[in-house]
From TrEMBL:
InterPro entries assigned: SAM-dependent_MTases_sf
A GO BP annotation: methylation
Record-linked Gene3D superfamilies: Vaccinia Virus protein VP39
Organism: Flavobacterium macrobrachii
Protein's UniProt keywords contain Transferase: yes
Pfam family, one: Methyltransf_24
Keywords (A to Z) from UniProt: Methyltransferase, Transferase
Keyword check for Transferase: yes
SUPFAM superfamilies: S-adenosyl-L-methionine-dependent methyltransferases
Gene Ontology MF: a single term: methyltransferase activity
Highest taxon, organism lineage: Bacteria
Name this polypeptide is given: Class I SAM-dependent methyltransferase
Amino acid sequence: MRIQDVIPVKIRKQLLAFHQSLLWKKSFNNFKEAIDKGEVPSKKVIKKLIYSWGNQGFSAQTDYLETCIKYTLSTKGNIIECGSGLSTLVIGYIAKVQKRKMISFEHIDVWAKRVQENIDNFQLDNNTIYVRQLKNYGDFDWYDITNIDLSTYDLVICDAPPSNTKGGRRGFIHLFKEKLEKNAIILVDDTIREDEQQMIEEWKKILDIEVNFYGTFDPHAVIRIK
């Protein structure tokens, strides 16, 4: 008889969450150590980060998180993130080391609170999370950016709003096309989905961009503004 046949699902989930919580701080510190040494964290380190963060099914996966790390290390300007989560902390730490500013948008209060708690715990004071509800902009819904002092951006992490939002993630380009530096990089997750593929094709009509696709297990796009 297998152990999963004996222990109720609820208890198994609780045990998993407890185990993840025990590993989280150590996993993040191992990531920090690699960055502090000027190294790109290994797949093993990244996989432990993803596991211990404990948001399977929604959190960035190995291929995409590696891409986020690579382009954070290779860019220099301000960073903007659509959505928040593990990537906020990973990119936020690199940005702190590089003395770059980062902002993230989130519309789910409970989730933003969890991320903010970790920002505070790891003293990632270069990162600001704006908890803003989704606003109707006509053809699309996107985060309400009213009264936010926006800058120009060299790196964009485009992983939200959710796919069931009016317009999906399309609104970003319409609101920020004048805020993107030349050669700015936009990272788009979930390009296995038809909606993201169509979005990128629509963006090609708005801006002069170069698009490359990567990722075996979590297909994603790297877009460069020409």
